[in-house]
Specification:
Distance between the termini: 96 Å
Radius of gyration: 33 Å
Order of helices and strands: HHHHHHHHHHHHHHHHHH
Largest sheet: none
Shape: elongated
Number of strands: 0
Number of helices: 18
Structural class: mainly alpha
Strand content: under 5%
Helix content: over 70%
Length: 370
């Protein structure tokens, strides 16, 4: 193994660097030089000796490989600021194109190309607001050229940037994209972006607006016969409607999805889950009305004869029995038994707690009367 001696620091010319790339006896050295952002100034006289074959130490190969990697990572802030500067330069050139003389279509086409480059630079710098606003300028250029699809795509890119900083702006850009796609009859794309808007409102805990956009998305998916996506949106609607205590709306959606799923061999297994969700909404809606839940259970058995043999049916029947007897302990035991076999999610737990609290209140009311 060769020895590594400290040497005086020095500079190596570009010509020497290129010679080293071709003559280095160590394949790892060559790979480092070819694949890295290597600059001549990174080398010393010491490195020159190593590359010329005077030192062939595997230890040196490892040290130099690490040296190059660290060089690439040393100034991330400077790299980001450089990208911002590049983006601003492209943006200035684009603005100059728009304000200058030239053929109408050529002017906007050249500006669009520059705005696209500027937006990409801002994205590399993770300057999301700048990238978003630049994509909007790009969209306006495409609209001037009557390139509606490209404009819609630019608005969608702007939305993706704003998602990281400003959900309101992100939603606004998606709505612009949807309007353009709708005018061009691209219903599937419009449905996808309506769904994205709904997801943004969902993330902001604005369930009422989320329902509105999930409904729009579901309608468009259904018109395009994309039933799976439509039902995914409808399940979201049912989930949020129940959270907002619009139980009847949730019941209707879950029962309808259950009916549709019975005719599909791949979806049959999920029927009992939809009927359980509908049954829990029935319990919340009835507020102790055992007749309503028992009638619902009879309907569900008629809908799917196998449902009566499932754990989901047993849970609903046991809960109805506990409510009928006004027995909180029995209610709790039924929930625990089911949860030990099939873990209840947060949504179901919330509904069950509502029913339990109503049952407790009724029990206390009866105690006060006696």
């Amino acid at each position: 193994m060769g020895e590594v001696y400290p040497c005086l620091m020095g500079w190596v010319s570009m010509g020497q660097t290129n010679w080293m790339k071709s003559k280095s006896p160590n394949p790892l050295h060559r790979q480092n030089l070819e694949n890295s952002s290597f600059q001549p100034r990174h080398l010393t006289i010491f490195n020159f000796f190593a590359f010329s074959g005077w030192i062939k130490s595997p230890l040196y190969a490892f040290i130099f490989h690490h040296h190059l990697r660290s060089k690439q990572r040393r100034h991330p802030i400077k790299a980001m600021s450089d990208q911002i500067a590049r983006g601003e330069e492209f943006e200035k050139k684009a603005e100059k194109k728009l304000s200058g003389w030239g053929l109408f279509s050529s002017k906007y086409e050249d500006a669009a190309d520059l705005f696209d480059k500027a937006a990409n630079s801002f994205k590399l710098a993770k300057s999301w607001d700048k990238a978003g606003s630049t994509y909007i300028k790009l969209a306006n250029c495409h609209l001037k050229m009557d390139s509606r699809h490209e404009a819609a795509s630019a608005y969608a890119n702007a939305s993706n940037c704003y998602k990281k900083t400003n959900s309101k702006e992100s939603i606004s850009c998606l709505e612009q994209a949807v309007n353009l796609f709708l005018e061009d009859g691209k219903l599937n794309m419009s449905a996808r972006y309506y769904k994205e808007i709904a997801e943004l409102y969902e993330a902001d805990q604005d369930f009422e607006k989320a329902i509105v956009y999930y409904e729009r998305a579901a309608d468009l998916f259904q018109s395009e016969e994309v039933t799976t996506s439509a039902n995914q949106c409808r399940q979201k609607i049912a989930q949020f409607a129940a959270q907002l205590e619009d139980y009847q709306k949730s019941i209707e959606i879950y029962e309808d999805i259950a009916r549709q799923s019975l005719n599909n061999n791949l979806l049959k297994y999920g029927v009992r889950g939809h009927l359980l969700n509908a049954g829990l909404c029935q319990l919340c809606k009835g507020k102790g009305d055992v007749v309503a839940i028992n009638n619902a259970l009879e309907r569900y058995q008629d809908l799917d004869p196998t449902f009566s043999g499932t754990r989901e049916y047993k849970l609903l029947a046991d809960l109805a029995d506990a409510i009928d007897q006004e027995d909180v302990s029995k209610f709790t035991d039924a929930v625990k038994e089911f949860d030990s076999m099939t873990q209840l999610d947060a949504w179901k737990t919330t509904l069950l707690l509502r029913v339990k609290e109503a049952l407790k209140a009724k029990e206390l009311e009866d105690d006060d009367l006696t």
